[in-house]
Specification:
It is a single chain. The chain is mainly α. 70% of the residues lie in helices and 0% in strands. It has ten helices and no strands. Helix 1 crosses helix 2 and helix 5 crosses helix 10.
């Protein structure tokens, strides 16, 4: 019988907090159970495994991230939308490092198809890129460029990997400007 007060939602929220405090790789069923003052078995009434917990955490964090991005890009287009998207992404990655790390794991595609938040992520990202006149297969290539640029920059910044005296924000703004110019001049694939 499930312990009173424990729900999947509360368990996942506790896992998200644990991830931000101790790192995503250190999220365990035992660690989450300790936050509630219960034994691991109490959580297994709600989740099947550590893998399921981490997948649910990835979907939870992805939903948070896209909500922030959606709010940032609302009513914007072109370069302004790209910059708002990038800034919201960076802010989330730096403020919630464990949750952000969860968004980078590979999730079973059948779960992705059932996730309104992940569908919304695709809609918003592709919407911004379509404003640059991109269509498939260029859309997929452009998404990969944005994701790898944003992720790489945020990972290096979070790890203290930028040692030069230049302001990190100024470099970020230049990177976003360079992405905008690249998207405007995209080498389109011929049908």
């Amino acid at each position: 019988m499930p312990r009173a007060g424990l729900t999947v939602e509360r368990i996942v929220a506790a896992a998200a907090d644990l991830a931000d405090e101790d790192g995503f790789e250190n999220v365990t069923v035992s660690g989450v159970a300790r936050r509630f003052g219960v034994k691991d078995a109490s959580l297994y009434s709600h989740i099947r495994s550590l893998g399921e917990l981490r997948t649910r955490l990835a979907l939870f964090a992805g939903a948070e991230l896209i909500e922030r991005i959606a709010d940032a890009v609302a009513g914007r287009a072109g370069k302004d939308a790209l910059a708002a998207f990038a800034d919201a992404y960076r802010e989330y990655a730096l403020r919630h490092p464990g949750r952000y790390a969860a968004t980078q794991i590979r999730v079973d595609q059948s779960l992705v198809a059932d996730s309104p938040a992940l569908r919304r992520t695709a809609e918003i990202t592709y919407g911004i890129l379509r404003a640059y006149g991109l269509e498939e297969p260029d859309l997929t290539d452009a998404v990969r460029l944005l994701r790898s640029t944003f992720h790489g920059y945020c990972a290096l910044e979070a790890a203290g990997g930028f040692g030069a005296p230049r302001d990190v924000r100024a470099s970020w703004d230049k990177a976003v400007e360079a992405l905008h110019i690249t998207l405007e001049n995209w080498p389109r694939e011929r049908p």
